[in-house]
Structure formats: C-alpha cells, structure tokens
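Title: Comparing notes on inverse folding

I've been comparing how different people in this forum approach sequence design from structure. To keep things fair, I'm posting one structure and asking everyone to reply with a full sequence. Here's the target:
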C-alpha cells in the first residue's frame, strides 16, 4: 500500500510517499525557519501563508508514483497551519478517488524510528516486533512519555507541565543572543565545551515537579517535567553576570549553555528511567526535533542499555517534522480511513484519542 502523507502543523510544509508503512519512496520538506527567525519563534499567520504558497509545489515534488491513500496531520498544532494541509489532502483524496486518513502528529513522531530508505536495505526494526515500548516524543511543541502496549495504542504516562524541551532550548538561546532555533546551536556549543570543559557545570534545576501540584492533572510527578524553574534560574544567572553581553565578554557562554543543556538532558533521562522501570518494555522509541540532540542521544543510550531495552532513534532527517512519518503511520491506521469531507482540524488533539 502506497500512501502520500502531508504535514503542515507548524513551520514545515512537508509531503512524502511511504510504501507499506516504512519504506520512504519520496520525502520533501520545505522549512519556514528563515521566515520565523526575525521573530524568534513561529508566527501562526506567517506559517499559514507560507504553507498556502508552498503546499502545491511540495506535494507535486513528492508525488513520484501513484498512491492508494492520502494521509494528513489533523492535530495537534496551529489551527491555521493545520487547515492548509487538511484542505489540500481532502482535495487530493477526492481528486484521486482514494481514502483519506487523519493522523495525530505526536503519534507520528513515534513512528519515525521505523522508517527506512530503500538504499539502506529493509530497515532493522518493525513496530510489531518492538512492542511493548515506551515512547518519548520530544520536540519544540511536546515532551511526553507514552506507553505503547501494542502498535497503534498510546497512553500518556507523563509530560511537561509547561514548556516543551525544544521550547526551553529556543528560549535560552534567545536570552543568550544565540539566534533561532536554539536547539542546534546549544547542541554544538555544548559539544565543544564538554569535549574540553573549561570549568565545572553550573547545577541548574533538573525540572522535577513537586508531588501533588494541580498542573500534574493526576499524572505522577516522577514522570513529568517542568522547565519554568530552569528558565528562571538561567535568567537569574544572566542578570547576576550583568546581562548576556557581559557573559559573552567573560567567555562564559559555553559553560552556561552546556550546563543548561545538561539540566534538560538529565531531567529527560531521569523521567525516562523512571517510566521504563514502571513497565516491562522491549524498546524505547524516541521521536521529535530534540531527539537530534547529540548529548541526549548518548545519555539515552546509556539509560536504555542499563534498563535492558533497545533504543530506537530516527535517522536525523526524520527527527524534525516531515510527511514520511504521517504516511508511514497511516499504513497502520488504514482500517480507520475517514469520510474525507467529515474530518476537521483539532489543534489540541490528544495522544491516544
Ligand atoms: O519536531 P520539530 O521539528 O517540530 C515540532 O514538532 O516542534 O522540533 C523542533 C525543535 C526546536 O525547538 C529545535 O530547537 C529543536 O527541535 N532541536 C533541537 C536540536 N535540533 C532541533 N534541540 C536540541 N538539540 C538539537 N540538536
Ligand atoms: Zn513535530
């Protein structure tokens, strides 16, 4: 079964074709990052307009063969952005006379480790052989630990109570004058610092929420994170140093950045370990833009090895938002093809709903 997947939930206009859920036939991603850079974050109206301008070309370039179905992200995400993809997908499905399949963006991120390129052979891991799994969806919009007892079933075990990990990286980079998005530059600076540390890491808070706070909404505190205290600690540190420029002049940016990254990585590692210990998992499935982080990859590898589970990470090109994850997961959802005209966007669509 050959599926065209369309993704426009945030700041990437993307389309891809995937065969039988895993083999990526084509993958086209137009990123809007340069458009949003001047604002230091994603502006919904700018995103929507750029999706409208690019969707036709992106889909055309991805359409390298006939397809049996069209899949599209219908949530969660930015409403005006999601609408562009959904409307395009409806038109295509109707025009081609094929079914439309609506896909949850976060669940799709957890499909990325299973995608493979034909040039690399048949791919090492099939979803069916990797369950039960603990899913970690970690991106600019989401940070959640998800129980996957069998493929296609999802239940949130824990999540961030405020900022997503990627957002925490982006906000820190903005505060320190390092540009947008923050994740890649923080990763690079930290890597250089950690290779030859000039000074000790600053002990920033590791984002453990207090037991019983109402924001937990019934989830256990040891499986949730909160990055607001970390952000405040960084702000205080910058202020005490006399501002970001003074910090830079003192050559302190690398140490501060590496310490901040370490706090996020250790927070994520700690919750992941706790979640793994609560279940009997075969694998740890990780997806989302922040899973590109080199330090996080290394630390999760240690955690997974210690807990006796296989760590399944996506290829770098499938970590950020893309259409292949949408087309791929749709194969496993083919029984749920929707009436094309009845589907609507759901900006706050929940995992497992
Ligand atoms: O998955 P994604 O492309 O979009 C969302 O669904 O949010 O993730 C984007 C996020 C941004 O916050 C970006 O700063 C972060 O992923 N990111 C990274 C790295 N590369 C991208 N964070 C940490 N380390 C990286 N190397
Ligand atoms: Zn995403």
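Reply #1:
Here's my take.
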């Amino acid at each position: 079964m050959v599926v065209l997947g369309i993704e426009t939930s945030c700041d990437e206009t993307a389309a891809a074709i995937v065969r039988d859920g895993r083999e990526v036939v084509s993958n086209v991603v137009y990123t809007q990052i340069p458009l949003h850079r001047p604002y230091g974050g994603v502006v919904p109206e700018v995103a929507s307009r750029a999706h409208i301008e690019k969707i036709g070309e992106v889909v055309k370039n991805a359409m390298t063969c006939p397809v049996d179905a069209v899949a599209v992200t219908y949530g969660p995400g930015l409403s005006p952005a999601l609408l562009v993809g959904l409307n395009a997908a409806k038109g295509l499905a109707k025009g081609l006379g094929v079914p439309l399949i609506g896909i949850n963006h976060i669940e799709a991120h957890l499909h990325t480790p299973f995608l493979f390129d034909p040039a690399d052979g048949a791919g090492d891991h099939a979803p069916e052989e990797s369950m039960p799994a603990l899913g970690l969806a970690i991106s600019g919009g989401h940070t959640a630990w998800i129980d996957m007892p069998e493929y296609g079933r999802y239940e949130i075990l824990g999540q961030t109570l405020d900022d997503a990990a990627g957002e925490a990286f982006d906000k820190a980079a903005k505060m320190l004058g390092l540009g947008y998005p923050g994740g890649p530059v923080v990763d690079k600076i930290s890597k250089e610092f950690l290779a030859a540390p000039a000074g000790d890491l600053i002990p920033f808070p590791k984002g453990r929420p207090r037991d019983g706070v109402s924001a937990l909404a019934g989830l256990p505190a040891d499986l949730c994170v909160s990055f607001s205290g970390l952000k405040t600690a960084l702000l205080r540190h910058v202020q005490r140093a006399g501002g970001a420029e003074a910090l830079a002049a003192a050559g302190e940016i690398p140490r501060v950045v590496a310490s901040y990254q370490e706090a996020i990585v250790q927070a994520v590692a700690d919750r992941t370990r706790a979640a793994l210990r609560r279940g009997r998992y075969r694998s740890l499935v990780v997806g989302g833009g922040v899973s590109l982080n080199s330090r996080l990859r290394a630390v999760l590898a240690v955690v997974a090895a210690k807990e006796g589970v296989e760590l399944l990470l996506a290829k770098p090109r499938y970590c950020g938002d893309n259409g292949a994850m949408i087309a791929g997961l749709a194969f496993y959802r083919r029984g749920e093809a929707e009436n094309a005209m009845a589907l609507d966007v759901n900006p706050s669509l929940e995992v497992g709903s």
